[in-house]
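wait is this the right file?? whatever heres the structure
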């Protein structure tokens, strides 16, 4: 029995756990928040958001109130995977006054968040696992 090529491809995709359904895959969320040091806003800090799985980065600069916002890192995929969860992982780096700070990192199995709001205090780092971080996630609207 000989199947037409497009039917054979569709069957193959379904058996592999993929269906031809365009969707966005988020590699790093949109990140927003504020950077402070010793209780004062940090003006002109550069915030870099990077994904562990793609080479793109999103960069923002904090304003007069220390606030910043970046867009998400996402890709339009032609197929959706039905079997197994994707991996995600991203990091937030802050560069201020010539110093580099690890703001926040997160990685896991599953679908990552589409947006994250952070409160970053460069004068009060804390330990999480083996990392020394300067930002904590906030609930939306806080």
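ok assuming it is, sequence goes like this
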């Amino acid at each position: 029995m000989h199947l037409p090529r497009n039917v054979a491809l569709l069957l193959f995709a379904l058996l592999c756990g993929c269906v031809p359904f365009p969707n966005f895959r988020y590699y790093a969320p949109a990140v927003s928040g504020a950077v402070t040091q010793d209780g004062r806003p940090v003006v002109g800090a550069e915030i870099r958001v990077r994904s562990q799985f793609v080479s793109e980065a999103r960069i923002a600069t904090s304003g007069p109130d220390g606030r910043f916002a970046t867009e998400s890192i996402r890709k339009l995929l032609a197929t959706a995977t039905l079997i197994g969860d994707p991996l995600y992982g991203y990091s937030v780096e802050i560069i201020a006054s010539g110093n580099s700070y690890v703001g926040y990192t997160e990685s896991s199995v599953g679908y990552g968040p589409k947006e994250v709001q952070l409160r970053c205090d460069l004068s009060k780092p804390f330990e999480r696992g083996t990392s020394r971080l300067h930002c904590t996630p906030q609930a939306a609207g806080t």
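The chain has one helix and 15 strands. so i think its the right one actually
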